[in-house]
Amino acid sequence: MAELSVEHLLGIKYLKEKDINLIFKTADHFKEVINRPIKKVPSLRDITIANLFFENSTRTKLSFELAEKRLSADVINFSAGQSSVKKGETLIDTVNNILAMKVDIVVMRHASVGAGVFLSRHVDAKIINAGDGTHEHPTQALLDSYSIREKLGNVKGKKIVIVGDILHSRVALSNIYALQLQGAQVKVCGPTTLIPKYISSLGVEVETNLKKALEWCDVANVLRVQNERMDIKYFPSTREYTQLFGINQDILDNLGKKIVIMHPGPINRGVEITSDVADSNESIILNQVENGVAVRMAVIYLLAQQVKR
Length: 309
Prior knowledge:
The protein is an alpha/beta fold. The chain has 2 domains: 12-137 and 289-304, Rossmann fold; 138-288, 3-Layer(aba) Sandwich (Rossmann fold), CATH 3.40.50.1370. It has helices spanning 17-34, 59-70, 91-99, 115-120, 138-152, 170-181, 210-216, 238-245, 249-253, 275-278, 285-304, and strands at residues 48-53, 74-79, 105-110, 126-132, 159-163, 185-189, 205-207, 219-222, 260-262. The strands form 2 sheets. A 5-stranded parallel sheet has the order 7-6-5-8-9. The chain has a 4-stranded parallel sheet with strand order 2-1-3-4. Strand 5, helix 6 and strand 6 form a beta-alpha-beta unit. Helix 1 (17-34) packs across helix 11. The protein is globular, with a radius of gyration of 19 Å.
């Protein structure tokens, strides 16, 4: 059986294109499973998975938990808000205590960049990065690419624009890596204050005019403004941001072509995207949610094959 070239899913930058193809092929199988009347398979009955979320998360945590349960794994949920971390316990202590319970895979979200890499060097378990600070969010990028492939038949050669708060977004960075690895062209669009300085070194063009960006692209992946990560003001007002970078149905109707609209959620309706666009036929936002479960099942299943018994 084909195996991933990595022992953990720490970031897209560590993957090869063949890894992405293997994950998608496996996800195709699981997508069929989750659309059956009985949505569970006994694949991971002997695997224990710990979900460690040191940052708040609703959608990603639920998606991982559902994926794990669909595979019949034993699941431990750990939320830092109600834990000894608040009493000063270190990340290593927390994880070692959980590993003492014989955990095989750890799914972790953490505010610190590189937390997953750090953990992978110190503990004997497979690590899946569910988001590390403003760095990477690999499973989100995988499900985004999978959703584009499902809608347009292929990612290669497609033009994707990522619109919004690129500076604070781990989704943007993981998407750039994943899309380029599969041969797509990528641009970013947003206020110059929300575009990181290093972006051109990744071979990504910057477009500050939303209309031009949308006229160029096949797919627009729209990000929310991450106010919770901002310690200063990056633009004058939400109203001005919406006027310059918000996507509404009028803008799409005037393009003269159809484009695909995506959003990793949660959506700030009326800010970066209006409800009529989010709920339109061009939007594949709900497909992304469904595909997230299948893609995460694939990642967990493939890493579990490497667990030594």
